[in-house]
Specification:
With 201 residues, the protein is mainly alpha-helical. It has ten helices and no strands. It is globular and about 55 Å long. It binds protoporphyrin IX containing FE.
Length: 201
């Protein structure tokens, strides 16, 4: 990670852990409602998706504020997306299925919404494993291409969300709108940067 220390950094690291502390507190005080396992999935899944959206929001914020140090935060938020997604997956493997791999295999095959969760997690895992300066150097130009897969991850995550939805549409629709704007911003920037090259070429 291209680490540049400033006073906001430790507060951001600590702040990103608040959802986890809040969850641990609710577990300790039996505050997760009548279906605690489902509540656990929802809380961790929601935070994994929120951190994916926050990670995608860094570039537009950087463009508007012209604050170059923002890229350190993009990596940090991306790693937190991976962290919460990993806890979400662990919750599924341990709390839902007690690591019974055969049952897990059957459940994954039968539950189509999980395929998209697995796809999103696979990508987020790859991106987290290649986030270091060392990996960036080794992968060269492919690094940027690989890290663009975050767009596929966030789309897979939102499909995963909609597909398993049992009730309220408002929340996933809100995330869909946010993702639409974030991807729209990237598409417009891409088009804007492409045009001068085409005219000269
Ligand atoms: C980056 C990867 C992932 C993200 C961002 C993600 C996100 C989410 C979100 C937003 C929800 C819905 C929460 C709500 O209702 O408010 C959810 C539910 C769920 N996810 Fe994921 N997920 C991911 C990967 C996975 C994987 C790999 C699995 C399993 C192998 C999984 C299993 C589940 C389960 C079991 C539920 C709950 C369904 C229910 O309410 O019964 N997720 N996830």
């Amino acid at each position: 990670m291209n680490f540049r220390f400033n006073w906001i950094w430790p507060f951001t690291i600590a702040g990103c852990l608040i959802p986890l502390l809040w969850l641990v507190f609710d577990i300790a005080y039996d505050n997760l409602g009548s279906n605690p396992i489902q509540a656990l999935h929802i809380r961790l899944g929601d935070w994994a998706l929120r951190f994916l959206c926050i990670t995608l929001a860094v570039t537009p914020i950087q463009t508007f504020t012209k604050w170059r140090g923002m890229s350190d935060y993009r990596q940090l938020f991306g790693l937190y997306a991976f962290f919460y997604a990993s806890l979400h997956v662990l919750g599924y493997l341990l709390a839902d299925h007690y690591l019974e791999w055969q049952v897990i295999g059957i459940d994954i095959i039968e539950s189509s919404y999980i395929w998209f969760g697995v796809l999103a997690y696979f990508i987020v895992f790859l991106l987290a494993m290649t986030t270091s300066k060392w990996a960036k150097k080794r992968l060269g130009k492919s690094w940027k291409k690989l890290h663009r897969f975050i767009y596929i991850a966030v789309c897979a995550a939102i499909i995963h969300y909609f597909w398993q939805l049992k009730g309220n549409l408002a929340e996933p629709l809100f995330y869909l709108l946010v993702i639409f704007f974030l991807l729209g911003f990237r598409a417009l920037t891409w088009l804007k940067n492409r045009q001068p090259n085409e005219n000269t070429g």
